[in-house]
Amino acid sequence: MSISKLMLLIALLSLTGCGGELDDLSPSGENMTVPVVPGSSGVQVSQQAIDFVLNDTLNVPLTLSAEYPAADALVLYFTMWCPVCDSHMGYMRQYIRPNFPNVSFYMIDYVSGSVTASRQAQLSNGYTDFSVMVDEYQQIQDLYNATMGTTIVIDSTGIVRMNEDFKDGVKLYETLSLLP
Amino acid sequence: MLDLSVDTEAYDGFWNSEGQHLADPPGSVLSQTRLNLGIGYRLTDNWQSSLVMPFIWNDNEYAGFTSKTSGPGDATASLWYEAFDGITCVWQVNSLADLKPSIYYGLTMTIPTGISPYDEVTNSFDITGRGFYRLDASVLIDKTIFPWNATLQYVYGVNFERPINREYGNYIEPYEKNLGERSLATLSFGYSYQTDKAEVITVTLAYSDLTEAAGEIDGQTDQTTGLGKTSLALTLAYSNFKKDWIYKLTFSQADAGYNFPQTEVLSLGVSHVYF
Fold it and tell me: pTM for the whole thing?
């Protein structure tokens, strides 16, 4: 067997050996979501949101549940100050927030590691008009199974109404429109 | 032909949707290293094929977060047709016929073998691929009048819509997604020096302009997507007398863009041709 053929064989074998990480080769549109008990404590849609306390970038502690009564809903957006995050946050600022004045928007910074660094990132990226919570040790990111772009909507009773990637913002707009 | 190359890409902030450059968070050091294994095979006098398999290491350091992950990248399979029969490289121009360029037509399929947000992953730092099949059609026009060379390449790519039922390991209500059409134009100029041992050293300067239109979700335009960048690349290449070993060193820098990170790429590669 020539070296070229051997390398081709290795390359082809590597295409077939990575289990669940190669699902993109044959993508599925099947709904695999697992139903949850409405009102139970958790992070899935229809569950009672798990409470937490985080400092914002002005060092003011914010308790999630304490924010419920003041707004129709809370929107939590997980940011790492990347191009995609900037695009999402800019879209929220321009097209979503103006239509929902009674909804509170919070960005959760899970990469800066300190209030000081997070404040600096907030200023340099031009998002002083949003409240930014600082998830210094990624505890809330882990708790909510979140990552870059994860968007969570919690209504005024603490029920999770949405928990998924921001995508094009349509789902967020629809979710907020359906609030009582 | 076998080709092996290593790319090291360093990130230095990004351009937002308005083309304004924004810095990464303080204390960030972000980089990606790619090992690319390529195999080329000549099918006939005018047709050749190739397969490239990358393996990727992501190294992300933020002030409060460190992540080191690795995995296969998206593979590409290509088919090229050479629309010329004789050698078109000339030493001097004596007639109009000497100006005839070499024209290549190519088709490249990107295969989503990388780790995408729609695979079984937990966070965005694991990502090494985009998750979509893409077909690129290329035309490359090349003219060499020794020691000078000029190349113009245009690539147009379309992605294939796909269903998505999972994001970063969480199953979600399924939807259809597609990325936008892609366009890449590259213009390059090179100068070759031949040693007294008939080895060839070539320096090439290339300018590229890449754009990707906004994608679609369930058939509706996703206004948060779309990207663009322009970049400059300088390549130093060496080939031996038999032209069966070629070494390349390339430095590329993105100089403007939108919705795209600013990066610098250093690439070192070696190719061996089996006659």
Answer: 0.90
ipTM of the complex: 0.86
Of all helices (H) and strands (E), which one includes residue B40? strand B29-42
- Among the partner residues A7, A21, A167, nearest to B39 by beta-carbon distance: A7
Contacts of B166 in chain A (CB under 8 A): 23, 32
Six-digit token pair at B56? 């990727």
* Domains annotated on chain B, with CATH: 41-50+74-272 (2.40.128)
The structure tokens listed for B89 are 């490289």
Reading the block at residue B49, the tokens are 């094929």
Give the confidence band of B126 by pLDDT, cuts at 50, 70, 90.
confident
Cβ pairs bridging A and B (under 8 Å): 190
Nearest residue to A179 (alpha-carbon basis) of A104, A94, A88? A104
b/e per residue A35-71 (b: at least 16 CB within 10 A): eeeeeeebbbbebbbeebebbbbeeeebebeebbeeb
Q: Mind listing the pLDDT tens digit for each residue in B68-99?
A: 999 999 999 999 999 998 888 999 999 998 99
Is B164 in contact with B132 (CB distance < 8 Å)?
no
Residue linked to tokens 């024209």: B103
The pLDDT mean for chain A works out to 90
pLDDT in tens, A117-162: 999 999 999 999 999 999 999 999 999 999 999 999 999 999 999 9
Band (pLDDT 50/70/90 cuts) for residue B5 is very high
What fold does the segment set A41-177 form as a domain? Answer: Glutaredoxin (3.40.30)
Q: In terms of CA atoms, which chain B residue is nearest residue A9? A: B39
Q: Which residue in A20, A84, A114 is closest to B119 by CB distance?
A: A20
Instruction: Provide the b/e sequence for B9-31 (b: ≥16 CB within 10 Å).
Output: bbbbbbbbbeeeebebbbbbebe
Instruction: Compute the nearest-CA separation of A142 from chain B (Å).
Output: 10
Q: Please, which pLDDT band fits residue A17 given cuts at 50, 70 and 90?
A: very low
Contact status, residue A15 vs residue A24, Cβ threshold 8 Å: no
